[in-house]
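Sanity check record (used in CI):
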Amino acid sequence: MVFALTLLMQYLYINLKHMMSQAELHEYNQQLEQRIRYAAYHLPGKKFSRLAQMMLSAVCSDYHASGEYPVDGNPIAMGKAHGTTPQLARKTLISLMVEGWLDSQVGTTMYWPTGAMRALYGEVNKTPHLEKLPEAPAMPVLPPTAKRAAKDGFVYLMLNKRNGYYKIGHSTVPKFREKTLQAEEPEIEMLTWFVGTTAKERELHELYAEKRIRGEWFALSVEDVNALMQL
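Expected output for Bacteriophage T5 Orf172 DNA-binding domain-containing protein:
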């Protein structure tokens, strides 16, 4: 709560932007970007999502309205964007969701797949030093189809090496899903994933219904696995 209130105070300070020089404004915007990402790292997903919507609406102000600031109204360096404050906020949220960035202190790729950024690996008790990635993430968190996958999600295939069963499931963040399952079953391994809706997942469940062991786990043949690996 204290951390959230601190963030809110920082964003209320944006109202003083017209009293700042462009250099001061640029530095302040950089600090805001770091705070957004810090909040994303530490706050629970839903709480951060609500907070981010409000804060980004304040950050993504149309500075060109005063005639004193750059026409580019997106101050957190996610590329050129023009439009109303809500449009800029949405564009920023989408950019954060798709691109990802690197926590260089713990070697973690940060990304925002479902309304809140999550951390893979890393140590959450450390203050992250975040850097926006100029290119693709350092880890295979988001494949090139990320923009489409943000809406559809992924269908994945995992193997439990302990019993030889395969899991066909759906997730917006397959690698994160793999890590959560490995916490209970370390022998689980991701084999492949591809862009697909829950309807595609159900289609595959029906296709292999006779080989179902329980839930999303199946006793698949080598031929079945090879076919899924080609999707």
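The chain is about 40% helix and 15% strand. If this sentence no longer matches the regenerated tokens, the check is flagged for review.
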